[in-house]
Automatic annotation (TrEMBL):
Domain of life, per lineage: Bacteria
Transmembrane segments: 70-88, 95-123, 147-167, 179-197, 203-224, 254-275
Keyword Membrane: yes
Entry protein name: Uncharacterized protein
Keywords: Membrane, Transmembrane, Transmembrane helix
Amino acid sequence: MSGAFTERWYRLFLRAFPPDHRAEYGAEILGTLLNDTPRRHPWPRETAGLLTAGLTARARATAGPWWADGVQLGLSMLALANLAYGIADHASPGWLAISALLAVALLRGWTLAVLPLALAVAFSTGRAMLVGPEATAWSSQFLGPAYHNWVSLAPYGVLAIGAIALAAGRPRDLRVRPLWWLVIPAAALALVHLFGIREYGETWQLVRAGTESILLLAGVLATAVARTPRWALAAAIYVLPGAITPLTDPPSSTQIFGYWLILTGLLLAMAATAWRPQPVPTARHPQ
């Protein structure tokens, strides 16, 4: 290994920091790590410290009001889930395009584009309840599934209400989130079309539950670091519309009940962590 490799290694893990932080302190951090002399091997302890410090800085970084950041993140998760389910259902290319545009617009913070797309998605899925059963037979490449009960429409209603709130609040500087979040619908595409896994079968449900649990657990850890309710709000936007389903339609198995119990427990842990008061250091008087 050369000193150049060590520098590239540390630069790679510097990307854990927010871009603004890297621009201001990146050279200083890198110089401290290299200690002005080239090293042949990166130190695992320093690598772990760099990654931890970077993720902590990201958790504490702010972009606009906390409520807007939480709403944006929660709606992004709903939009990504909607796109993943559209892929699993072999939806029309037009519906998949609208769903993908909505997910990208939310991730990138394009508020004015989010509103019409979210309203279009909500109307398409709720047309049978809003217009009548005959709307189910409407033929269009840009229409998605038509649901016949309000419980199934809850996530799409939350999408529309959240988009209206973002547009009405006009928050500035919404966070621009990376497009690697699209790995979630990409995984759905791989599961269904590349590996031939049955839609909504055991493997699908296992991957879904694992992904959601990891993201919610990451939210709990980020909340513990930053002590802000934005992740709890995002989790509530994502979890609660689906959690009402077992209340109106009791689950057919203990696995489904346990799944919703775990997600709700992680949400409550996140909320409790966000509003837990931080200890106030006491002044120490000289003897």
